[in-house]
Design a protein that fits this description.
Layout (H helix, E strand, L loop, with lengths): L3 E5 L6 H15 L3 E7 L16 H39 L6 E6 L2 H8 L3 E7 L14 H9 L4 E4 L8 E5 L4 H12 L7 E7 L4 H16 L4 E6 L3 H11 L4 E5 L14 H8 L4 E4 L1
Parallel strand pairs: 1-2, 1-4, 2-3, 4-5, 6-7, 6-9, 7-8, 9-10
Antiparallel strand pairs: 5-10
Family: Belongs to the universal stress protein A family.
InterPro entries: Universal_stress_UspA, UspA
Protein name: Universal stress protein UspA
């Protein structure tokens, strides 16, 4: 089974960014690109909402009409999805991708991605979906569930595409982030991109040794690489470094073994995603 770049799209403002970053990744990795749209057909109106002082016959009539409305909504949602997929395919071809594919599924995004996980090399998603609140710091609830459930790299992207020229990895010496450094070193996705390695912590011998290993690994692979050890609160320190150095893409572990540990509301990973104005590549 060929692993592919899979891009999950809906009607949100992030869909264009998802399309363009997915096309960029597909071309760089020389991997097939598939767009995915999931139609959630869960009924919008529960039967319990109809309880009250109405006659049985009237109630049955209302239930029948609501059932017909649900069917109509599902058909409209499927047609909207087909149009979105068609537009995404056309956009990817314009970006240079040959023969991108598309899939439309019924169900939930989390369950669908779990079923397709073995086919995914890289998952590209927007920071929020069409049903999420439009506050710039709001994180879609689907995204948190997707990241918890997936064991593939996930690229969480902003609404507009910018070709990455500088990448920063939040490094803590864990197996996940060491694998992340090795991924940066060897992956064609990061060819020609300057790499920054940042450890948030004290200037200790162990941290210096970890940083030296990371920089040597990247430089041996031909990357321009620099790094820093900075004390401070993790998310604030990483964000400050990103802004100082005009970083275009951030790499971090969804789970780590130090202060970057849990993908829960209020954690470093979630905080980075909430405030991110650049793509964030999450590794497991």
């Amino acid at each position: 089974m060929t692993e592919q770049v899979m891009a999950a799209i809906d009607g949100s403002q992030f869909s264009e960014g998802v399309c363009d970053y997915a096309a960029w990744a597909s071309l760089a990795l020389e991997a097939p690109l598939t767009f995915l749209h999931v139609v959630d057909n869960h009924p919008q109106t529960a039967e319990a909402d109809l309880s009250g002082n109405i006659g049985l016959g009237s109630r049955e009539h209302l239930l029948e009409e609501l059932s017909q409305l649900d069917e109509q909504r599902a058909k409209v949602a499927q047609e909207q999805g087909r149009l979105m997929l068609k537009a995404a395919l056309e956009r990817a071809v314009e970006d240079g991708v040959e023969a991108p594919g598309s899939r439309q599924r019924n169900g939930t995004l989390v369950e669908t991605l779990a079923e397709l996980e073995d086919e995914i090399r890289l998952l590209v998603v927007g920071k929020r979906g069409s049903s999420a609140h439009q506050d710039s710091e709001h994180l879609g609830s689907n995204l948190e569930r997707v990241v918890r459930g997936q064991h593939r790299p996930i690229l969480v992207v902003p609404p507009a595409f910018k070709r990455p020229e500088k990448v920063m990895i939040a490094f803590d010496g864990s197996n996940t982030t060491r694998k992340g450094v090795e991924l940066l070193a060897r992956s064609p996705l990061f060819a020609g991109i300057a790499c920054h390695v940042v450890i948030v912590g004290a200037e200790t011998g162990d941290n210096r040794s970890q940083l030296d290993w990371a920089l040597a690994t990247l430089r041996e692979a031909g990357h321009e690489a620099e790094g820093a050890i900075r004390a401070g609160e993790v998310e604030e320190t990483l964000r400050a470094y990103k802004e100082e150095h005009d970083i275009d893409l951030v790499v971090m572990g969804a789970y780590g073994h130090s202060r970057i540990r849990h993908l829960l509301v209020g954690s470093t990973t979630t905080a980075m995603l909430r405030h991110a104005s650049v793509p964030v590549l999450l590794l497991r």
